[in-house]
Design a protein that fits this description.
Chain C: Residues 1-177 form the FAD-binding PCMH-type domain. Chain C: This is Xanthine dehydrogenase family protein subunit M. Chain C: InterPro entries: CO_DH_flav_C (IPR005107), CO_DH_flav_C_dom_sf (IPR036683), Diverse_Substr_Oxidored (IPR051312), FAD-bd_PCMH (IPR016166), FAD-bd_PCMH-like_sf (IPR036318), FAD-bd_PCMH_sub1 (IPR016167), FAD-bd_PCMH_sub2 (IPR016169), Mopterin_DH_FAD-bd (IPR002346). Chain C: Pfam families: CO_deh_flav_C, FAD_binding_5. The complex is a heterotrimer of chains A (174), B (790) and C (286). Chain A has helices at 33-40, 85-91, 95-104, 113-126, 132-138, 150-171; strands at 12-18, 21-27, 59-62, 65-68, 81-83. Chain A has 174 residues and is of the alpha+beta class. Chain A folds into two domains: 3-89, Ubiquitin-like (UB roll) (Roll), CATH 3.10.20; 94-167, DNA polymerase, domain 1, CATH 1.10.150. In chain A, a hairpin with a 2-residue loop joins β1 (12-18) and β2 (21-27). Chain A is globular. Chain B folds into three domains: 2-31 and 486-633, Aldehyde oxidase/xanthine dehydrogenase, molybdopterin binding domain (Aldehyde Oxidoreductase, domain 4); 34-142 and 200-293, Aldehyde Oxidoreductase, domain 3; 377-473 and 639-786, 2-Layer Sandwich (Aldehyde Oxidoreductase, domain 4), CATH 3.30.365. Helices cover 29% and strands 23% of the residues of chain B. In chain B, a hairpin with a 5-residue loop joins β16 and β17 (422-423). Helix content of chain C is 35%, strand content 27%. In chain C, α10 (227-233) packs antiparallel against α11 and α11 (240-253) packs antiparallel against α12. Chains in contact: A-B, A-C, B-C. The A-C interface holds A 1-2, 4-10, 12, 28-30, 32, 35, 51-53, 56, 59, 62, 65-68, 70-73, 75-76, 78, 119, 122-123, 136-138, 140-142 and C 1-10, 20, 23-25, 31, 34-35, 38-39, 41-43, 49-51, 53, 55, 79, 99, 102-106, 108-109, 189-191.
Chain lengths: 174, 790, 286
């Protein structure tokens, strides 16, 4: 029998780049990425809502794409680049989204909000001017029990408009 | 009171859409929820749950679990019963109600599938779950009472063998004249309704960290709850700890909606586990556990009759409501409040005299039901509004006309409902008119008729509602519950001239702290960002009811208002001494003391604070500046501040698939004085969507043996963004005269009528096809069945 | 909801993965996207001793043309179905089905090979294998073999993939200009498993359907071809009568099982409605 069979409880060392910094930490193979981020790395902005990919509270960016932190194990992320709500906040990458969510009160309890922002960030990086229906579709895996979604859709639409206006200004000759 | 309505002067925050100051943290992932809390030496609890809905516990073998490395404690019901006094979920004002005593973990019998039986405390949650797999419990299965109607039949097995039946509570209302009214009526309509069990599904599950310090005999509980003071009292009494040594802290809460103010067996157990171990113990219900242990709600069968005259005037209603609540009545608020509110709210918007209702609350082998957002309202509203539509159709008049003929006239107040609710001032007539306008009702009807020609079946539904807010001690206190209906605030001017407000109402994201800050800043005359609001810690704020039944703005807000006025008077008194002026000649605007007559700047408030705190020697002898005030406010006057409103719904039914597409939703609502219009609108939107989820998707489905069949977030369908409509909102403002502020609640209005609206709209769409729906949720299966499509 | 302990092996080749599986005494699971497997582990419905991560096996990646076939590597993510130009051109039915598969973040991680290997009867892609007459390439003890989709799905979560074997690629006959596709499903909410779903691929000539393959999902233990309905439509012009006849033929093709929420008769009814709508769309396209 291979030694790896007996190593089930043993911690393994994983290295990844989290929010732009190289990080190494010890995890058990069974630790999910969201548990590792929240516990070992104390990045508690990523939340666990259902632990089965049905609520979107645990979304993080893995190599630039939004994924559920509850649907992969931390060991699988060895060598990957992970960006969480904390990193995206500090870098200013989603500052306009955050400001518009705040202005429009597109959050109440805030538990879904980091996942919503990660998803909105990805949507707007792929579609510059999404329709309201396209925004609702993109949010179809993010559960919010508080807002009724409309304010979130409004906020994302407003940011899309503002980014488009800015891009066209920058693109148009002086 | 111009000061309350004018938005022209500085610091006029009441009535203004100010973003929530505390939301920025949450947007940056800097929230601090109980699920985030980690304390030194903290251990993790997990629970082994009953696979049976009803069974006797024959044996429990925990030896292997205890032996597992990393396991610190395996506790059974008997272990915790030694230190925890049992509780009983009854209240005195519900005459004759019964419920069995409860303990954190059962001693000899399980009464629902999913009930926690054995607790394991280990170094990690994963290890605790490993240990659960090593525990074996021997059960002898007992007959389970699952179905509501079956539970009421004589000869049915009993949920509690010591009881004589499965009835928890029975009550009857009768205004008199009902039989006569039905006998003389031009039209009588009848319908039977069924409402599916729902569950609140807060995104943050229940979470608790109990931290017992054996040396000082003190307990600190970090608890995701709306009501920290209630739990301070309960933990003190049930674990025999002096109240002053129990501290309950409710930090950021990931949604609550009434669900997090009940006593849960696991939460009570976790406190006991921490006492037994003298270490911090954390428990977070995972989503699968949430579905089988969070309270459920709204499991009702209602039979209704309505008598109307030839003009469509309502003469009488006759109601029978049966509701099943699980195996126990929930503690400390009971499980009968919902049914009680159903039978008292039915017919509430309408002017009629004769009303009779029977309420039967029965036990069954399922998880407990109890108060969840808009307690009883959606059922009362759906029954009433469907009956009104049925009557309108019988009489041959439009639903708007029918309501216009029957709502209590806006000039008829004060008045009372046939069920005895006293109404101070409501605004049904003006709300009806406004709704008609914002819906563009006549145009919708035209469009509907045109589309029907093309085989597209759209429906329009409206629903009038009355909401209970600002409850007085009549709600719980009179029944013996130690649940406060008053709130308290401690307001201080800090040495640098800023303001600190510690208040007993709590925040779950609805904006409590924001509106309290607005009120304090407005009343004191300072910038809102100079007001810090602190909530959710029994060690820091005065005792108060906290947040439930839409009382935060109306009662908490008034508390803050009165406290701010007292602090302002104290500040101006010192200012008067310094400036050699009568305090009444001075005012505070934007943090500056000014002359009332001249508006001239006299002195910064910060300077008064500096002098009072650091140079009291310069004040006249005998002066003792009181720059901290503590103030309590208990509602007086009307026992409840009722609010009202009306909602409209426009939807499309695919009659081939039974699928329903919500196109637009409309709300006109009157919550009295509006403190922050944006936050009120968002309360309404969120509430509406919870009601729409109930209308179309949400239902706890059980198998014949009492197993929950859809207990996961993949199977229990909550409303998601794609299926929800945009919601148009308008307001009428009828302030209550019981308070200076005039605010009433708005948190439950959206949920109260949304499902009723959808029910009426679907029936409107199906009417030409001679099909009707009388059950919620309105699933494709129910629509297709009604249409006879399969 | 924490998985039972397991050990982890990151495989760098198919052989490496298969050897690790063999070493475990076949008490192992391969993990690709993991979007179905991880919840099953968290719920302890599955508890292998070793988890073999195949995400880093380069040979399982990539989409390319291979003669008359489009070869789609097993690790191709669902999101790539939406963006890959070769899939859009040569397997447009997969492109049409992809937006209905769960939600964006799931699509970013879930893989085509994983979906087909799991063979969830409520999933979109396994059924589309039938409609496309695709072949599934499997790496086993005796090397690689290709199994026609018609022979691949055996029973509930049971396929032609044996213990320790790995799905390495999906081979789809390249879409031709005389072919038409249609896809739709009836799901309660966007991204939910459908109450019933259907995809079809028709080869047309002069406004007639020469041949058609119609595949349903969420109708039983396995994704299911509606062969009787196919026979009704094949060689004919799709008109209202033909659609009614095809709908009636579904009785012979589908036998939905009992379910607490969707009775068999209702599911069959929904399948007929969906078939009717898709054939009507197909008739416009043909």
């Amino acid at each position: 029998m291979s030694s790896e069979i007996d190593d089930a409880e043993e911690a393994v060392r994983v290295r990844f780049t989290v929010n732009g910094r190289k990080v190494a930490c010890e995890v058990a193979p069974r630790d999910t990425l969201v548990d590792c981020l929240r516990n070992a790395l104390e990045l508690t902005g990523t939340h666990a809502g259902c632990e089965m990919g049905a609520c979107g509270a645990c979304l993080v960016q893995l190599d630039g794409r939004a994924v559920h932190g509850c649907l992969m194990f931390a060991v699988q992320a060895d060598g990957a680049r992970i960006d969480t709500i904390e990193g995206l906040s500090e870098s200013g990458a989603i500052a306009d989204l955050q400001a518009e969510f705040h202005r429009r009160n597109a959050l109440q309890c805030g538990f879904c909000t980091p996942g919503m922002l990660i998803n909105a960030h990805e949507l707007l990086s792929r579609l510059t001017e999404p329709s309201r229906a396209a925004i609702r579709d993109a949010l179809s895996g993010n559960f919010c029990r508080c807002t009724g979604y409309e304010a979130i859709v409004d906020a994302i639409a407003a940011v899309a408009d503002a980014r488009a206006a800015k891009a066209s200004q920058e693109g148009s000759p002086g | 009171m111009n000061a309350l309505t004018s938005l022209d002067r500085p610091n006029s925050y009441i009535g203004r859409s100010v973003p929530r100051p505390n939301a920025k943290r949450l947007l940056a992932g800097r929230g601090r929820y109980v699920t985030d809390i980690r304390l030194p030496r903290m251990l993790h609890a997990a629970f082994l749950r009953s696979p049976y809905a009803h069974a006797r516990i024959i044996s429990i073998d925990v030896d292997a679990a205890r032996a597992l490395a990393g396991v610190h404690l395996v506790a059974t019901g008997a272990d915790i019963a030694r230190i925890c006094a049992p509780w009983t979920g009854t209240l005195d004002h519900f005459k004759g109600m019964t419920s069995e005593p409860q303990l954190p973990l059962p001693l000899d019998r399980v009464v629902w599938a999913g009930q926690a039986v054995v607790a394991v405390v280990a170094e990690s949650r994963a290890l605790a779950e490993d240990a659960l797999e090593l525990i074996s419990i021997g059960y002898e299965e007992l007959p389970a009472v699952v179905d509501l109607d079956a539970a009421r039949q004589p000869g049915t097995p009993r949920v509690n063998p010591s009881g004589t039946s499965n009835i928890c509570f029975r009550t009857q209302l009768d205004s008199g004249g009902v039989d006569e009214a039905f006998a003389s009526a031009a039209h009588v309509v009848e319908e039977e309704f069924s409402f599916g069990r729902h569950t609140p599904v807060t995104l943050e599950p229940r979470a608790i960290v109990a931290d017992y310090d054996a040396e000082s005999g003190s307990l600190t509980v970090h608890h995701a709850t709306q009501t920290p003071y209630q739990f301070q009292d309960l933990y003190a009494r049930h674990y025999g700890i002096p109240e002053a040594r129990v501290r309950v802290i409710a930090p950021d809460i990931g949604g609550s909606f009434g669900m997090k103010l009940h006593v849960y067996h696991e939460d009570m157990a976790v406190v006991g586990l921490s006492i037994l171990l003298a270490r911090p113990v954390k428990y977070v219900a995972d989503r699968i556990e949430s579905f089988v242990s969070d309270i459920h709600a709204r499991d009702h069968h209602v039979r209704a009759r309505m008598a109307v005259d030839v003009e469509g005037k309502i003469l009488a209603m006759d109601i029978h409501d049966a509701t099943a609540i699980g195996a126990f009545s929930t503690y400390p608020r009971t499980s009968v409040v919902e049914g009680n509110q159903v039978v008292r709210l039915i017919g509430a918007p309408y002017d009629f005299k004769s009303y009779r209702a029977v309420l039967e609350v029965v036990f069954q082998n399922k998880v407990q039901t109890s108060q969840y957002r808009a307690v009883g309202h959606p059922i009362a509203c759906a029954v009433t509004e469907r009956m009104v539509d049925l009557a309108a159709s019988q009489v041959g008049i439009d639903p708007f006309t029918m309501r216009a003929r029957n709502v209590i006239a806006d000039n008829a107040y004060p008045t009372a409902s046939p069920t005895g609710y006293k109404f101070e001032a409501l605004s049904h007539e003006i709300c009806l008119q406004r709704l008609r306008g914002i819906m563009d009702y006549d145009a919708l009807r035209t469009e509907q008729a045109e589309l029907r020609q093309r085989g597209i079946h759209r429906g329009i539904g409206i629903a009038t509602f009355v909401e209970i807010t600002n409850p007085s001690p009549a709600f719980y206190g009179v029944g013996g519950a130690r649940i406060s209906s008053q709130d308290g605030a401690t307001l201080s001017l800090t040495p640098s001239g800023e303001v600190r407000c510690a208040i007993s109402v709590t925040e779950q994201g609805q904006g409590t702290e924001a509106i309290i800050g607005q009120i304090v800043a407005d009343q004191l005359g300072v910038a809102q960002d100079h007001v810090k609001v602190i909530t959710g810690d029994t060690e820091v704020t005065p005792h108060g009811g906290a947040t439930w039944a839409c009382r935060g703005a109306g009662i908490g807000g008034e508390t803050a208002l009165q406290a701010a006025r007292r602090l302002k008077a104290n500040i101006l008194e010192i200012a008067g001494l310094i400036l050699q002026e009568q305090p009444s000649a001075l005012d505070i605007i934007d943090g500056q003391v000014v002359g009332v007559a001249t508006g001239q700047l006299r002195l910064p408030v910060a300077e008064i604070a500096r002098i009072a705190y650091f140079r009291s020697d310069t004040l006249p002898p005998g002066t003792q500046a009181q720059l901290t005030v503590s103030h309590h406010f208990a509602p007086q006057g009307y026992p409840f501040a009722f609010t009202n409103g009306i909602q409209g719904c426009y939807l499309e039914v695919d009659v081939h698939t039974g699928f329903i597409k919500l196109l637009k939703h409309y709300v006109v609502e009157d919550c009295g004085r509006i403190i922050n219009p944006m936050l009120v609108d968002e309360q309404l939107r969120g509430g509406v969507v919870q009601g729409l989820g109930a209308a179309l998707f949400e239902e706890c489905r059980y198998g014949e043996t009492g197993q929950l069949l859809n207990g996961s977030l993949a199977d229990y369908l909550v409303p998601m963004a794609m299926e929800m409509p945009d919601i148009i909102i308008d307001h009428v403002e009828t302030p209550t005269a019981d308070t200076i502020l005039g605010a009433k609640g708005c948190g439950e209005a959206g949920t109260a009528a949304a499902s009723a609206c959808v029910l009426n709209a679907v029936n409107d769409a199906l009417a030409p096809l001679a099909a009707s729906i009388n059950a919620i949720p309105i699933t494709p299966a129910r629509v297709l069945k009604a249409l006879g499509r399969y | 909801m924490k998985a039972r302990a397991f050990s982890y092996h990151r495989a760098h080749s198919v052989d490496d993965a298969r050897e690790a599986h063999a070493r475990s005494g076949d008490d192992a699971r391969y993990i690709a996207g993991g979007q179905s497997l991880v919840p099953a582990l968290a719920l302890r419905l599955q508890a292998p001793r070793i988890l073999i991560d195949i995400n880093h096996i380069e040979e399982l990646r990539g989409v390319r043309c291979d003669g008359e076939w489009l070869r789609i590597g097993a690790l191709t993510r669902h999101c790539e179905m939406l963006t890959d130009p070769l899939i859009a051109e040569f397997a447009p039915l997969l492109r049409a089905a992809a937006p209905f598969v769960a939600h964006p973040a799931i699509r970013n991680r879930g893989t085509l090979g994983g979906s087909v290997a799991l063979a969830d009867p409520a999933s979109e892609f396994p059924a589309m294998m039938l409609a496309l007459d695709a072949e599934i390439e499997i790496a086993g003890t005796s090397g690689r073999r290709r199994v026609r989709a018609d022979d691949f799905f055996i029973d509930l979560f049971e396929t032609a993939v044996g213990p320790g074997e790995i799905v390495t690629a999906i081979l789809v006959p390249r879409f031709r200009c005389n072919q038409r596709i249609c896809f739709d499903e009836l799901a309660r909410r966007r991204g939910d498993y459908a109450l019933v779903g259907c995809g079809m691929l028709a080869t047309c000539k002069d406004g007639l359907v020469e041949t058609i393959r119609i595949a349903f999902f969420s109708v039983g233990n396995v994704p299911t071809r509606a062969r009787s309905a196919e026979a009704v439509v094949s060689g004919a012009r799709i008109d209202a009568d033909r659609i009614v006849a095809a709908q009636a033929a579904l009785d012979r093709d589908l036998a939905p099982p009992e379910s607490d929420e969707v009775p068999p008769a209702m599911r069959l009814h929904l399948a007929r409605v969906l078939l009717g709508r898709l054939l009507a769309r197909m008739s416009e396209a043909a």
